[in-house]
Amino acid sequence: MQTVIATDPTAKNEHYLRTLKQAGLRITPQRKVICAYLAETDRHPSAYQVYEGIAETHPEISRATVYNTLNTLQELGAIVELSFGADHTHYETNPAPHVNLICLRCHKIVDYHGDPGIDALTERVRDELGFQSAAARIDLVGFCSDCRSQRIAEIRAMAQCSFSPEQQTLEVL
């Protein structure tokens, strides 16, 4: 049995609202706005980014409401928390199988939708262990191309500083 995963914004929004309602929570105007934002974004927002994205057009919304709603959706399994330390918690709002490319330096998260073999892996896990996944993702943690280039430049600069002027002259000769 294949799990149908909502990936279009309208279906994702309905899924978030239905999840909150099934948990016995009221669907307040603030929760509707938060769910709509999450459904529409193609980013991996932090709670602060969600708040900033909403507060300009909905100044009545509080940070506490945003944080509480995100925590509730995460606890109910509707979104996934991606944590990179105390100040770097982001939320995965895309339940479709994909790979997250996570930069350790700038904390940027990019989705890779090429075939990483997730479908075959989830089928094998289901067959071997009886575990039916609701969503699947793989995280590759490393350095994005911008950060790699910056780091290489930093290493070269440090290497040049570590040579004495005499050593640099000898190398030129």
**Strand order, sheet with most strands:** 4-3-5
How does the overall form come out from the CA principal axes? Answer: flat
Strand residue percentage: 5-15%
- The overall pLDDT average reads 85
Q: What is the element string, with H for helices and E for strands? A: HHHHEEEEHEHH
Number of helices: 7
**Structural class of the helix and strand makeup?**
alpha+beta
Segments where pLDDT lies below 50 for 5+ residues? none
Q: Helicity range of the residues?
A: 40-55%
Topology:
Blueprint: H1 9-22, H2 29-40, H3 47-55, H4 63-75, E1 80-83, E2 89-92, E3 98-103, E4 109-112, H5 118-129, E5 137-142, H6 145-162, H7 165-172
Helix pairs in contact: 1-2, 2-3, 3-4
Question: Would you give an account of this structure?
Answer:
The protein is an alpha+beta fold and 173 residues long. It contains seven helices and five strands. The chain has helices spanning 9-22, 29-40, 47-55, 63-75, 118-129, 145-162, 165-172, and strands spanning 80-83, 89-92, 98-103, 109-112, 137-142. It has a three-stranded mixed sheet, with no helix packed on it. A two-stranded antiparallel sheet has the order 1-2. Helix 1 runs antiparallel to helix 2 (29-40), helix 2 (29-40) crosses helix 3 (47-55) and helix 3 (47-55) crosses helix 4. The longest helix is centred in the C-terminal third of the chain and has 18 residues, at 145-162. The model has no long low-confidence stretch (mean pLDDT 85).
